[in-house]
## 1
Amino acid sequence: MCGIVGYIGKRRASPVLLDGLKKLEYRGYDSAGIAVLDQGILRVVKRQGRVEELGAAHSLDGCIGIGHTRWATHGAPSARNAHPHVFRGIAVVHNGIIENAAALRALCLARGETFLSDTDSEVVAHLIAHAFCGDLLSAVIRAARELTGSFALAVLREGGEEIVCARKKSPLIAAAGEGESFVASDIPAIAASGRRAYILQDGEFARLTAEDVQLYDENGALIAREGVVLEEGELAPDRGTYAHFMRKEIDEIPRAVQNSLFSADYFQKNGFSEVLCQTEYIDIVACGTAYHSGLCAKAAIEELLRIPVRVFLASEYRYTRPIVRGDALTIAVSQSGETADTLAAAQLAKEKGCKVLALTNCARSTLTRMSDLLLVTGAGREVGVAATKSFQAQLAALYSLCAALAYFRKKRVPSPKDLLPLCGQSIRESAAVAGWAPCFAAARNVFFLGRGADRCAALEGSLKFKEITYLPAEGYAAGELKHGALALADETTPVVALAFDERLAEKTMNAVHEVYARGAPVFLVTCFPALCGQKEVSSFVLLPACEPAFSPMLSVIPLQLLAYETAVFLKNDPDKPRNLAKSVTVE
Ligand code: G6P
């Protein structure tokens, strides 16, 4: 998604801004720009494509500036639509969506103003310029009252010596250092040990000068709040010797799992006892990979505990009038804790009277602030846009929750801790998938097949594959294949079959026979050695056996690696897939 950086201090702003934008690249974007005040005059450089294209910005002088990476929503990716947008000496960068942009634009046009882009954001510069009567903060506050939708804003004024910021439903963090201040939409862009960070809340504004960061409420009253000192762990991540963050993050799965397992004791000491004793119904709301974690949790909790679990795509939950029981425990799963649809679904669940448990990797995210109960996974920062280690971390937490539900009901289920030593082993055993890449890179379509928990893993495998190879892939229930999709099977459609449940493995192999008979090459991921020798199997990954209901934690590892190896084979950048964003803060 879009990224914001801003700097005011003694240094030249442009290198600081460009460096900040590089650190936000992992969020996904398609154009970039910066505006610097050079002796009070606004200078703007905007380009389509990567931050590297902003080379001309290096020559900009001046110690105050704002920058932006844009992920197109309103208007095509182009230099014209890139931010900052400038109107009458006001420069604005914006994350989010201005929902009433069309109406506001019409008002501006009626005043005889002209627009240079197709974006919803440009109208913000017009409103601020219009509201300006000598004080930028008051103008931004007045303009913000006119806006509906979501926004994080950083604003400069020609001749000014400040940056003014605003936040509504889109993250924004200001930070104060020695004689300099920063603003960004995400911590890595501004983090340096010892800086004091101020996380803006909805409806708050900030004024940054070289000396200080000050926060204001929507009436312009000063808010007294101590900033938090940034720690080492929050600094920009390092790729080390790895070619890509995604590969490094797959190797970090064992640690992510270890840091995301919770004991029954933990649940007891952190206020979960009553909910875990009483919960009869569970709803899970999430998007993308987090949705697949929810499906895996459903498979495990229903299989092992017979507690009904419904899993909703957050975007569907919020608009399809779900029939919600007020006594259901609603688990909102989100790596970032900032996904707009998941936040809205969690809010709706609260309004229906449900207790909301937030499961997130970001302790200071918006989701954590709106939840009744909180589980923070310890995956560490995940830079690759396509989620990897955060998936296994979510499963570790959700399987821990399953074990805790059992504990509080005096039932017994296998311990998810047993999975921990098997994660590293699974990464090592998956090395064979590198050899599969040429076949998958040439595919017309790819199927991932399984039943039960294996099907949940297949869905995540196909999502990963699509995200970074740009090739069509489908996760499919093995038993459903012959009701339609089998029509696609031929020698150009490699099939990955998953088999981790003894009761279902032979049934899944029936689907393997069916696709093999139509010429499809078959690749098997299983824990059963006997299946690997079957003549239909071109190649296999044999993983350690575990509780079948928990097996997606292991079985998804070779699928993540297969997507990675195929993307690299195709010369795609697996860390920054086209059109996708790490954290989707607009609906
Ligand atoms: C984006 C990312 C996915 C992620 C999804 C949900 O689409 O590219 O990798 O699974 O958002 O994100 P969340 O932060 O809510 O888990």
## 2
Amino acid sequence: MTQNENPRIESPQDGIAFIEGKYMALSQACVPILDRGFVRSDATYDVAHVWKGRFFRLDDHIERFFASMKGLRMSLPYTHQQIADILIECVSRSGLRDAYVQMTCTRGLPPVGSRDPRLCTQRFYAFASPFVWISTVEQQRKGVPMIVSAVHRIQPEAVDPRIKNFHWLDLTMGIFEAYDRDAFVAVLRDGDGNITEGAGFNVFVVKDGALCTPDTGVFEGMTRRTAIELCAQLQLRCEVRPVSISEILEADEIFMTSTAGGIMPVTTIDGKPVGTGMPGGVTARIQELYWRRQEEGWLGTEVTYKDGANQG
Ligand code: PLP
């Protein structure tokens, strides 16, 4: 079949992007290949989500995005509110009720022949696309297999993981290792016998009813922050501190947290069952409250859809 036969009609629900001051179909959006964001991973980004027509923690995501840009000595000609308006507009135009919404700032193009990052003008783009699940709702019923990867997470002294970045080669090699070892996800180690995080998620370990999650060497995920707050609401003890590899291997429960899927149970670690080998009760309580709070509108920002599509 040639490309033109039976072409798929593109719908706004495939995604809407904003770039160079214009809204367009996500599939049409592109950046110049000499932008340092592309050739040097010289970029920062943030990802928020929309659930049932409402952004969750939109202001917190934009605040974190501005903090990341500051950390990388980048700036944009947009205010916090203007970025919020652009993101809401992308979702509104897409008609998506459940969406994955990314905002990105790249270093931009240097003048010809220059390597001086101070001379670049930063570029902004954003998009709304269908919601992304690291593990699907179906996989969450059983939990997914995880490994502790042999790969070390990039040292925080080299690339600050609290600034959301495109340095994903360590995380990507962890994914390959997970598949090679019949697992689905990998958590990377640091150089001191502790766990860090995985590709797009933070990790929580439950032992004897109390939780812990790594304090350093990780991106301080919005879902991690939310899970810590939900633990307080549920009167569960949650410590933010170094978590050793032996602790995760002996956990009663393990779960991942991410904007891309929420609270996601892990039921084997390095080929052995975690606890009973089924998603655990503490994980289930936090997961249930996570989605319930969003449906109640907690920290939510309503999207107004242009044509009323997908509402209600
Ligand atoms: N860790 C890394 C490396 C990530 O890239 C992400 C999200 O993309 C997370 C953790 C989870 O962060 P959040 O809960 O804000 O989605």
## 3
Amino acid sequence: MKIAIMGGTFNPIHYGHLLSAEEVREGLGYDKILFMPSARPPHKYADAIIPPKHRYQMVLLATAENPHFEVSRMELERAGPSYTIQTLKALQQLYGDTAELAWIIGADSLIEYNVWKDFDEVLASCLMIATTRPNYDLHRVPLAVRNRVTIFQITGVDISATEIRERIRKGLSIRYLVPGAVRAYIYRHGLYR
Ligand code: ATP
């Protein structure tokens, strides 16, 4: 079984996440994409992050119609900061030695590879798939690092969760940036206001 993990804060999940996951699944032949919302991202802004239960619910709603997409609560249920290496070890145990694990990381995250804890160990434990993202030039990543990951070209969708949060604050439309069910959830719970 080939499983690719898509980690993120998903604050909120948007079409940029969903399209890149689907393109990786189809293009690289994965059986399953496991969305892994992080509890406390060790290297991200903390203030704008809404409670995990809402981020998790929105990932569930956004992924429900794709039979190849699943959502994991593993990082939400673990105490302490979310470190990828711990998650990978736990998933390998859960799925067994024969499961081939990959971790999908967007260009912006790979550029920040030096803030990742145990980056070498992560690379040794799984295949890292670095997806392209508009406005993030992977040439900023040293060749020595680039050579150790699989760079996968995806359709450029210039959407960020930051932009979505800003649009909500300003009362602007987020239609076509997130799935309808996510948009409805955000309004129903008055999120990001
Ligand atoms: P924020 O704007 O709050 O920083 P984000 O939109 O970058 O959030 P994250 O949840 O931090 O979303 O992203 C999770 C993963 O998805 C990261 O690896 C990121 O690089 C990738 N990603 C996010 N948006 C896109 C996009 N539009 N295209 C390709 N990859 C993306």
